[in-house]
Design a protein that fits this description.
Blueprint lengths: L4 H13 L5 E2 L4 E3 L4 E3 L2 H9 L3 E2 L7 H10 L4 E3 L8 H4 L6 E5 L7 E2 L2 H7 L4 E8 L9 E8 L5 H25 L14 E2 L15 H9 L8 E4 L2 E10 L13 E4 L2 E6 L2 E10 L5 E2 H6 L4 H4 L3 E2 L2
Parallel strand pairs: 1-4, 5-6, 7-10
Antiparallel strand pairs: 2-3, 6-8, 8-9, 11-12, 11-17, 12-15, 13-14, 14-15, 15-16
């Protein structure tokens, strides 16, 4: 049971060593300017492998529960599925429902663990193989793997955690099957909650710090882009860094500067240097190429702000 690329990458490894009898995922969603329905990454992997796919609106439907019971799975693996599993489903597989969760539990339980870790400025995060129960990510875990966050964008961080999670999952499933898994109880007093991202939570704002705006870009994705208005144009900022060093210009919040072919945007306490952007209605390009298309950028005193 899973939906995004994180889940798809785990499924790729799982299906090579286990008989995956069915994949549950979110329904096809509208993507792109053509408004076409696009299957989830997990569904695409399943279809290519000839694995049956189901996309129920809820797992509380008695007919869906009956179907799951007929499948008689030894275990149910969950990775960023996006739906709650009721007790009736949790009780079906004899080896339990096993979740690949993208954090070092008990920190960042919830829907957006990787994004929240980036936004909070964590030095590291990780992945845990957890035994699911009725509470939200409260179950015992048997394996955890960590990794440094550094400057990794969300896409790359999710890829690394999916790789680590896939191999940890295979190890855990073998140990569970052999009755040798050693489970660690979570310390609830250390728990934090990774709330789902708001619709415009990653929008850039010159009234905020350079660090906060850079983290928003780092945590952004197609589903939650970091956008702003730059020189009168709507722009998605795909990559940016906090401006540092002697060459970084001193800018007021909302000011824009092109210096040594680098494009800077002023924030409340400094500036960020843009690396890659995607102007509305156009393809992604370097910030320098975007700046080259703005006539008299230096002399006009161009500005930026929230959309």
């Amino acid at each position: 049971m899973g939906t995004p690329t994180f889940a798809a990458n785990i499924l790729i490894e799982l299906k090579e060593q286990h008989d995956v009898v069915c994949v549950y995922t979110r329904a096809d969603a509208v993507r792109g300017r053509g408004k076409a329905l696009v299957p989830s990454p997990a569904k695409q992997v399943a279809l290519e492998a000839g694995i049956p796919v189901r996309e129920p609106d809820t797992l509380r439907d008695p007919k869906e529960i009956a179907f799951l019971k007929e499948l008689a799975p030894d275990a149910i693996v969950v990775a960023a599925y996006g739906k709650i599993l009721p007790k009736e489903v949790l009780d079906i597989p004899p080896f339990g429902c096993i979740n690949v969760h993208g954090s070092l539990l008990p920190k960042y339980r919830g829907a957006a663990p990787m994004e929240r870790a980036i936004l909070d400025g964590e030095a590291e995060t990780g992945v845990c193989i957890m035994r699911m129960e009725e509470g939200l990510d409260t179950g015992d875990y048997c394996i955890s793997r960590s990794c440094e966050i550094g400057d990794q964008k969300l896409e790359h961080l999710a890829g690394e955690l999916a790789d680590k999670g896939a191999y940890a999952l295979l190890t855990a499933l073998y140990a569970i099957e052999q009755g040798e898994a050693r489970w660690t109880k979570q310390d609830d007093s250390q728990a934090t909650y990774a709330e789902k991202l708001g619709h415009d939570e990653l929008m850039l704002d010159p009234a905020d710090s350079a660090v906060m705006n850079a983290r928003r870009v780092q945590a952004s994705s197609d589903a939650h882009p970091s956008k702003c208005q730059l020189a009168g144009r709507g722009v998605t900022v795909l990559d940016a860094r906090v401006a540092a060093g002697e060459d970084a210009p001193e800018l007021e919040p909302g000011q824009v500067a092109l210096q040594a072919k680098n494009l800077y945007m002023g924030c409340s306490d400094g500036a960020i240097r843009l690396i890659e952007v995607k102007p509305d209605g156009k393809k992604a390009m370097s910030a320098a190429s975007f700046a080259a298309g703005i006539q008299n950028l230096k002399s006009q005193g161009s500005t930026w702000g929230r959309l």
